[in-house]
Amino acid sequence: MDNAPRHASADLVAGISIAGLLLPEAVAYSGLANLPPQAGVLALFCGLVAYALIGRSRHAIVTATSSSAAVLAAATATLAGEDPARRAELASLLVVGAGVAFLLAGGLRLGAMSNLIARPVLRGYAFGLALVIIVKQWPHIAGVRIEPAPVPALLLELLRGIGAWQPASLATGLGALAALMVLERLRRVPAPFLVILVGIAAAPWLAAHGVALVGPVRLALAWPRFVLPSGAEWLPTSEFALALMFILYAESYGSIRSCALGHGERVQPNRDLVALGIANVAAGLLHGTPVGAGYSATSANAAAGAQSRLAGVVAAVVVFVLVALFLPWIERIPQPLLAAIVIHAVSKSLRLSAFAVYVRWRRDRMLALAAVAAVLVFGVLDGLLAAIALSLAMLLRSLATPRLSVLGRVGEHDYVSTSRYAGAVTVPEMLVLRPEEPLFFANAEPLLAEAQREVLARAEVRLVILSLEESPDLDSTVLEALAEFCAWLAARGIEIRVARLKDAAREALLRAGLPQLPPAALDYSSVDDAVRGQRIGAD
For the whole model, what pTM was predicted? Predict the structure, then answer.
């Protein structure tokens, strides 16, 4: 109880500190999502309040994020083209859809699903996405208007029109970017907020020199209106909502997990799924941007000394006060400053050092580069789907590649791979085999075919011991392939015993009722027990 006042004081300071970061970023990411400025502000309230009430991380700050804003912009452009009214309607529908997907995933307890995206792929995607965002924000820095286009075409168009770049706008954006880079070195200083204050003060002079300002921000709440997709649009709309949910959760879970590891917290991913679901449903109903636990805001909250989720509530109150009292001033923010804030935020993903470990380990280098190329070539949304597909393909390739180890004995009871331990002892009449991946439908047949080749290479074998410690369960394809393998062994007068079975796998084999694998052949808790014929429960 003695620590409560101190913690509350720390949360108060942290909440006030990060409010200066959150409000400018919320307005900036609204533009990145091709939505009006109020979309990010309304979503900010939804994210902060919903996560504070339901979430479990002490430091997570749920607000608009650059990656989700870019994905939303790409999705609405694909579905609605350049129709701004239809894009706004679809944006709300997609955000609500992502929230519903979060809630379904939380109800099904799928909290570990973000692990399906491999880290090299996620880092490559983040790097490529940062490049795309920077290129697409550059017209705001340069003060030129360019029609939306793929990144290579956009770059070419920017270079061709370099003579049309507005000096005042360019100086404003580059000056803000330089100030952000300098001020970020000062801890607990809300650099974006200070830059915005300077920009607002200089707004009349900048506007007189042709620098664009944010313009009207209308925060009046309206009952949500949705125009549901036509029959042919339901599938792509659902796919885009799922893609939005996936990138939001991958980003959020990465931020929450990193913070939890650094502060000794326990992660509760299923509870966080529900919190993110409610936050996004609320944001979508209020026509806001999608929200997630962005890394920059979450790490800034932790660095500011937050001790509980109260810091997020304080930040929401401070932002509300700023909006309620100073909304006319927010409308005077120069557009190049917002573009500079976005570029500065995503530039943290442009670290080549993130790929250094893959070069040093000689692992997954091409995978990370392929993820970067996917975003640049296919675009933000298709690049995300390609990155997810790449991760799943990598997983299936790893699992489907048959690796079978022959085991030999070292010491009295231990059995290890003979390819790794040359001194491991084998017995001519006995062959001990261990699949190095879980058996499932894609690898069962080639792996058991490899087991047959090992048996044929040893004519004197009379006992085969199969260690299935890597297989938590067995599907029907595996059971059929095992039945064929057992029958093949029986035709040659070879006995088979199965060791180290997990409960679900043992139940599956018992239900299958294979003649060569009676219950007695399944009750070996270790390879050594199977070798000695000592079953569980036997005297």
Answer: 0.70
